[in-house]
Amino acid sequence: MTDVRLSSDPYDVIIVGSGAGGGMAAYNLTKAGAKCLMLEAGGWYDAARDSKWLEWVYDAPHRAGASATQPFGGFEAVVGGWEIAGEPYSNAPGSDWMWFRSRMLGGRTNAWGRISLRNGPYDFKPYSRDGKGFDWPISYEDLAPYYDKTEELIGVFGSAEGMENLPDGKFLPPPAPRCYELVVQRACKSLHIPCIPSRLAVLTRPLNGRPACHYVAQCERSCRLGSNFSSPATLLFPARETGNLEIRSHAMVREVLTGPDGRATGVSYIDKKSGQEVQARAKVVVLAASACETARLLLNSRSPHHPNGLANSSGMVGKYLMDSVMSDVNGFFPSLMDMPPHNEDGVGGMHLYMPWWNYRRQRELPFSRGYHIEFDGGRRGMPGLGVLNGSERFLGEGYGLALKQKSRRLYGSFINFHGRGEMIPNRESYCEIDEKAVDQWGIPTLKFHFQWGEEEIQMARHMQETFLEIIQAAGGQVIASSEPAKTGGISRGGQAIHEVGGARMGSDPETSVLNPHCQAWDCKNLFVADGAPFVSLADKNPTLTILALAWRTSEYITAQVRAQNV
Questions:
Q1: Based on the domain organization, do 289 and 150 belong to the same domain?
Q2: What pLDDT does 391 receive?
Q3: pTM of the shown model
Q4: DSSP secondary structure string, 21-75?
Q5: How far is the C-alpha of 530 from the C-alpha of 23, rounded, in Å?
Q6: Cα dist. 300→254, 394, 544 in Å?
Q7: What pLDDT is attached to residue 387?
Q8: What CATH number does residue 255 fall under?
Q9: Are 264 and 371 members of one domain?
Q10: Would residue 69 count as lying in a domain?
Q11: Is residue 93 included in any domain, yes or no?
Q12: Which has the least CB within 10 A, 32, 65, 249, 518?
């Protein structure tokens, strides 16, 4: 590595990470007049130029199949994954954590499912309800105005339902359900399970200069027109238009730099193209690198003033790592066979879903929290190979014309169900610096400790039972499921890519890393704007809450700077 290079003149704010939280911080801080430097570990990405949304797989090498750096397929807007060459991580004995890292401008917002659910009042005060886990130091009422503003900015469709602990929002009109979704909705009605319009960050009406979705059906490839939410299209590029945002890609941040008084003075990063270490200076540092990466940065930022890592006087950095409980079942539905050709227009992604419905029966269940159900299917892609009743092969028999005819009969008759549930934080789930390993830039890496509790295992088992009830009520048959056995069919930790925690907010600096405004107790010009501040992980996907929290934190930073408190 060459000598350290000092960056240009100091900035008002350095933002580490360009995903949901970093993008929202940049959007608000630049509009408030702050000169911001954004550092992104991956390469540049602009969907208007780089999306592969209209390309055919047969025109690509290996039919655009998955690779080490694009684990979901060569055309998906994903660069990174669970395993990245030169960026190792480890698991402690008995742990099995999967750490997903995104290495592109906009991070995971380029290809996420765009499910945008508000946490409800119960979700901010779970300990007060059942005595497990922890309460947030803020309430739903504190964040509700920022949910409003976020939805109005990014565009979220949905419907007003007035459901318990599922706050309604500022919604665009939802698209009409598809045929297979109506089949599931009818079955759910017979079981008294709510099946309502989804809440996705996809435009069904033009908004803020962005056109409505016209259903190319390739949302995972990112949208060239910006009809679905991504950080670059909706937040970063508008922020650059203010003239107040500089973005440096291929910048792998090593640590947050601090002065003799313990305050942050900037960051040190590796220019991945040259291998040179660069130091950039700023009055305020915002970490939005994703929950585990933010914990890693804090733990690696040791100094005489912060011997155990920056903002870690409580010893809570890296602690109480969480991910969504996940379990899946696939079903075959004979009633959907031999359907005449028809469109399934609308938006990419599910048009209906099932929110948690058992709050009133919670004490009768062997787990204390809830889950929601996502499902997909229909006539978007050809059915895969499968087995019916252990003998008849769906597409395994026949050749030529016979195979084509069978494929046409089966097309659209498969539906896949996915549970996403709340994990109760536990002491055994955390990350720490692996003192024996470094990445290719010499930066110490993370070691993970993780385990599901018995309640999460029971929840996954309940998911499996519920999926079976819905499939049977709809006249279908289970063809594939997560293995129930001892684990209840539960996913691996990190597999849902919903990891949060590691720098939780709180009211007491003895037991938390951040105050209720996501400001570090130990370093008042350091803030966190990703999933790390989460105190709990509700049965709602975390991105909308990350965005709303980042907006609230950005307003607080602006107010504190103007009051000369930072």
A1: yes
A2: 34
A3: 0.96
A4: HHHHHHHHHHHTT--EEEE-SSB---HHHH--TT--GGGSGGGG---SS-TT-TT
A5: 10
A6: 8, 53, 29
A7: 42
A8: 3.50.50.60
A9: no
A10: no
A11: no
A12: 65
What pairs with residue 268 in β-bridges? 255, 279
Q: Which of 185, 159, 263 is nearest to 566 (CA)?
A: 263
Shared domain check, 105 and 128: yes
Question: In this structure, which amino acid lies at residue 208?
Answer: N
Note the pLDDT tens digit of each residue in 217-276: 788 999 999 999 999 999 999 999 999 999 999 999 999 999 999 999 999 999 999 999
Over 62-76, what HEC string results? Answer: HHHCCCCCCCCCCCC
Residues 345 and 245 in one domain: no
Place of tokens 């890609």: 249
Query: Could you give the CA distance from residue 472 to residue 86 in angstroms, rounded to a whole number?
Result: 47
- Tally of structural domains, the chain: 2
DSSP symbol at 205: S
> Percentage of the chain surpassing pLDDT 70?
95
**Amino acid residing at 365:** L
| pLDDT tens-digit series, residues 101-140 | 999 999 999 999 999 999 999 999 999 999 999 999 999 9
Q: Which residue type occupies 279?
A: Q
- HSE-up of 84 (CA within 13 Å, CB side)? 19
- Domain co-membership, 278 together with 391: no
122 lies in the same domain as 270:
yes
Distance, CA of 286 to chain centre: 19
Report DSSP letters for 95-122, one per residue: --B---EE-BTTGGGGTS--B-----HH
Please count the CA atoms within 13 angstroms of the CA of 111 that sit on its side-chain side: 26
Does any domain span residue 436? Answer: no
Q: Which domain holds residue 398?
A: 159-220+325-421+453-489
Task: Look at residue 148 and give its three-state secondary structure.
Answer: helix
Which residue matches tokens 């291998």?
Answer: 275
